[in-house]
Amino acid sequence: METKAAVTALSALAHEGRLGVFRLLVQAGGAGLPAGEIARQMDVLPNTLSASLNILAQAGLVNSRREGRSIIYTAEYGSMRDLLAFLMEDCCAGSPEICGPLATVARDCCAA
After folding, report:
1. H helices of 29-76, where?
2. 103, exposed or middle or buried, with CB in 10 Å at 0-12, 13-18, 19+?
3. Which terminus of the chain is more solvent-facing, meaning fewer CB atoms within 10 Å of its CB: N or C?
């Protein structure tokens, strides 16, 4: 990931509502969630949610697909991995104990 793309993604996530939506979609997995369900769970107005989803989509962090009359949104896991890798690539300075706990977080998260 290039620096400009990382800044765009981080900027998109640097808002409480957008971060919440992104985390909800990450938790939803590959099936994703319809826009109405996201609005209900996040307790936001549809126009506010639409703006947030557009910003996240422009940053490459969410995808959408139409299913009948619904638009289903999913987290873009590839972009999430790229962003995390970008943030971690220069980590540790030869001291793996600095970043080691992150592997435990990832392992515990994925095991659940």
Report:
1. 35-42, 46-58
2. exposed
3. C
Residue in the structure block whose two tokens are 């943030």: 87
Q: Tell me whether strands 70-75 and 62-67 are parallel, antiparallel or unpaired.
A: antiparallel
Report d(CA 36, CA 96) in Å as an integer.
43
Which pair of structure tokens corresponds to residue 89?
């690539």
Structure tokens at 60: 């490459």
